[in-house]
Amino acid sequence: MKIGKWWHSVEGTLEKRDERIECDLCPRKCRMKEGDRGFCFVRKIQNGKMVLDTYGKSTGFCIDPIEKKPLHHFYPGTSVLSFGTAGCNLGCQFCQNWDISKSREVAKLSSFAAPETIAKAARELGCRSVAFTYNDPVIWAEYAIDTAIACHDLGIQTVAVTAGYIQPEARVEFFQHIDAANVDLKAFTEEFYQRITYSHLAPVLDTLRYVKRETNVWLEITNLIIPDSNDSADELKRLCEFVAEELGTDTPIHFSAFHPDFRMQDKPNTPVESLILAHEIAKQAGLRYPYIGNVHDASRGSTYCYQCQHCLIERDWYELRAYLLIADRCSHCGAQQSGRFDAKPGTWGRKRQPVNLNSFRPTNIQPAIHQLSLPVGEELSQPSLQPSPSPISSQSHSSEDPVSISEPVKLPMLQLDELTDAQKQQIHRASQLAIIAATIGRPLSSDWTQLLGDLAGKYVFGLFTTLTRAKQLRGCCGFLGRPTPLAEAILQSAARTAKDDVRMVAISPAEVRYLELDVSLLGTPVVLNMPPTERANGVQIGKHGLRITRGNQAGLLLPSVATDHDWDAKDFLRAVCRKAGLPEASWQDATATVEIFDGAVISGAIELESIPSDMPVVLPPGTIQKLQKLRQVATNNLIALTQGGTPSYVALDAMDGNVNGMVLTLRNAETSQPLANWIHTSLRPGFPLQNTLLELCKNAADTLLRTRFEKNLNIELEITVLYDPIHHGIIQSDDWEGDGLRETFAQCDLEGVKADNRAIVSLLGDRCSVVFDAAKSVHQLVQEAALPLRSRKNPIAIFSMQCMSTTSSLMASNAPIAVDRRENRQAAVAGTFYPATRSERMSLIDRFRSNPTATPRRLLGLMTPHAGFPFSGAVATKVWEQAELPETLLMIGPKHTPHGSDWAVSPAPSWELPDGDAWMANLDLASAIVEGVEGMQFDLTAHLAEHGIEVQLPVLEALIGNSLRPRITAAVVRGASWDEIRTLSQQLAAVLRKLPELPLLVISSDMNHYQPDPETRRRDELALKAMESCDPYHLLETCRAHHISMCGVVPTAIIMQTLHELGKSFAIERIAYETSADRGSDPGRVVGYAGVCFTEK
Questions:
Q1: 890, β-bridge pairs
Q2: CB 1020 within 8 A of CB 1007
Q3: C-alpha angle 275/279/280, rounded to 5°?
């Protein structure tokens, strides 16, 4: 309980019992006498003052994707710790959280959570932000503000999900502590607000204007569309026009589907057509970022560039499928997008994880571990993220006061080392049946537990079920740390392994007979209580599994992993560190908790006798006739879209449903030759067929309008639908023999695949090929699918999917084809990153010059930033001033855009600058690198939109003046493992040794991206110190372990390792460092810029 703010006495005194206090928090302005509660229920009068008696009483703690709030432009992909309290200051008859917001039983719903506890939990759980949600935080503003302050102290952002029904006096202080808000604009008529929500529209609109115009809060809006209540085209039009005119066209708006609830159960669910209409109206009003929610519509849930219309963030429900932003700019056209974006998106996905805050409260109010009695032979591990449960049955406690447990009941634990072969067979057979039942969606027979006999009720501390095929993991889920009856443990783990391992495609009924099953029974986790550097002595390979925890990062490896890889104890410890996302040496860190646990692994194949004779098959989403009808609708839509007409959004009686893949093909009707393919895949969880097809038609129409085809060209449209995916394994570099594949593969099992009903789908990163042809062998199909994706030594994942198509065969791929064309490279970012006229460039660089008379010196290399000139130009100028320029500059930068090859050398004879002289390329060196470095390709496309190398040229233009210009050789690199970096560097050094003069090795890279200024400086200092060690692997590990988003870390490691391969002894000399805040940018979101020289010792 806490004395509330924002109230006054109506008469100025409370001496008389009938005099009142008036609440100034929200527009209701409730007047209350002693003992009364306001409309919201949580504020009441006690002892002559208004108090918030739900302060600290919270409920629903859960980690969500930020997209669920919904916030699509606030650090996409990150996790948010959500919670609420009870009560609400609105009376919505359609309330979707009425069990919380209308609750009058606060004590039953809630548990106590101090603001500091919430902030600590968010930090330790790795959450980017904390959300005040479920019910409106306005009514518990004091608690929300205190929590926000505690969060900000720990670097955690705060989110308010609110209806915006707050008074001007209170909203100033409330939003001062909020970083992002989603305001629920429930309708756009006063009549709706009065009749349906018992409130008024005007205060909400005032709040929206205030937040947008007078705060730094990131704002998004939600509008719940209710049939026949607020869904008229006129109302939606006026709402969208208000947003565009009063709040700006860059304000995201989410149109959400209603479902009958609370007191409005006479209304139907919102038709999808209503949501699509709202989306279209928003676009017509000029809103750049309209979204559809509460229904599965990947296309309208994704973010598109307002300028070039390319998809920048592809969402499938709350999961990010593609992310093509470079900082906050479109990777295609460079247009700046509105929002708060990290350098890389989060990876939380769509999962929802409940949180028990007891684990994060001060330890002096937890039950004392020594009071708990354990079974003979069992040990209790020390807490990692939370204390390991003990195998006792006791009365649960909800109080935060210390409790003593006087007579614990020992649970019957399964003795792993006493299991007989017969018992192991029982457990394995029961697990097989559980896996199959979960796969086909049938209940187990009532006598299933009889297979386990007396074992069913024995407790285990953990259990994992692991499915593999051709040595490739197909699913592995389970738990460790809570005593659970064996039968229950098998059911839980099997169900999750079969269908819910989010890393994998769900198990298909068609592949069950080809799977291997391991059941891992786990014992009590025990902390290695010994000096950290001696922990390897406590690990027994083949007996122990490992779990490591440090901060909010944790990783677990089963005992079998070490034996499968032939690791020793130190190898095993390093591997579990990698699993946790920690540096490999973290097991020697005193701040890390390392636990061992015993395990008994029961292995074997899924037996044929376990598989039911009537094993079901996955059915297609419709007949071929319905697919043909959909093809006709798509053809009509394509015609309409190319002629400025309106497409059909829904095709009745045509194929529809969720699928896992689709290819839209345009072909020449006379020659049957394909003109173009558009591929969309989602192995998990799938996507809506008709909605996605319409988006592909829009992409096809855009291509047709931009491409010059012959007049009267007769184009036909074909549709291929893919479903029931199965992962068969991987194609490795050793599986290739020349340009063809060997007959058999070490880690890819194609048994059961038939070319007459399944397509082969190959995947490598974001690249995909789809092939089917009943006239060819499965081996031929795999080879055709894998060949376009072949890249260095990267493994290619092979899937098959059931296929239905309007064409008899297909070969489609989105893999780039390297363009080796000698064509001058035109400026891509002139006028945005730097001035487009020579005179302006020269004038700007002159202002940046720190020592125009400085004598340049011979360097081995340098690192220079590549942001826009107003931000990084000064640092770039200072470092270039240091260098004596040789005949050739070898410039390597990161590949920001998805276009073209991953490792690409520019084949351009020259690099053009507007209103200036061209820079000639050293194509002899470029050719030598392509020939001598495995994986490097000439590719014009890869360099077309890249800015990292281009932005260096105006600096050199100003510094060199009329002197002889060096020639440039330009390369970009996207992704590389440490082994690949070492090989590349060895081969590059071999090329450079043959030259009469070593070129200046130039790295184009910015430092950490989009953290507050102090945090960016801290991370950049770590990275620069790692560079100064002259150890490229240490630099890579430092950036990975500390989440330093240095975009050119791979090029930097390549240059450093190349110098080592050349036998050069070098030192790193810092020349300049700034952040964008030094140049007037928002200090809350900065980029670091460093200028560094590589000098020979």
A1: 969, 1001
A2: yes
A3: 120
How is the beta sheet containing 319-323 ordered, strand by strand?
A: 303-304, 311-316, 319-323
Angle between helices 1049-1061 and 978-993 (to 10 degrees): 50
| Cβ neighbour number for residue 645 with a 10 Å cutoff | 10
Q: Using CA of residue 390, residue 79, residue 1033, residue 1096, what is the dihedral sign?
A: negative
Residue where the block lists tokens 């952040």: 1075
- Which are the contacts of 191, defined by CB distance < 8 A and separation ≥ 6? none
Q: Which amino acid is at 99?
A: D
Q: How confident is the model at residue 1084 (pLDDT cuts 50, 70, 90)?
A: confident
Closest C-alpha to 521, from 549, 541, 537, 543: 543
Would you say 61 and 14 are in contact if contact means Cβ atoms under 8 Å apart? no
Q: Read out DSSP for 996-1012?
A: SSPPEEEEE----EEE-
Q: Are 80 and 66 in contact (CB under 8 A)?
A: yes
CB 1051 within 8 A of CB 893: yes
C-alpha 1077 chain-centroid distance: 27
Q: Per the structure block, which two tokens stand in for 446? A: 């009532």
**pLDDT interval class at 584 (50, 70, 90):** confident
Q: How far apart are CA 259 and CA 269, in angstroms?
A: 5
Residue 834 DSSP symbol: B
d(CA 507, CA 494): 11
**Which DSSP string corresponds to 148-216?**
HHHHHHTT-EEEEEE-----HHHHHHHHHT-SEEEEE---S-HHHHHHHHSS-SHHHHHHHHHHHHHS-
Domains of the chain in sequence order: 54-345 (3.20.20.70), 416-610 (3.30.1490.150), 634-813 (no CATH), 838-1096 (3.40.830.10)
Contact 201, 189 (CB under 8 A): yes
DSSP character string of 479-535: EEEEEEEHHHHHHHHHHHHHHT-TTSPPPPGGGGGG-EEEEEEE---EE--S-GGGG
Dist CA 838 CA 426 (whole Å): 80
- Burial class of residue 649 (count of CB atoms within 10 Å of its CB; 0-12, 13-18, 19+): middle
Q: Is 940 helix (H, G, I), strand (E, B) or coil?
A: helix
Chain segment 144-202, per-residue pLDDT in tens: 999 999 999 999 999 999 999 999 989 999 999 999 999 999 999 988 888 888 889 99
Residue 880 structure tokens: 């270039």
Report the residue count for the chain: 1097
pLDDT of residue 845: 92
Query: How large is the average pLDDT for residues 852-865?
Result: 90
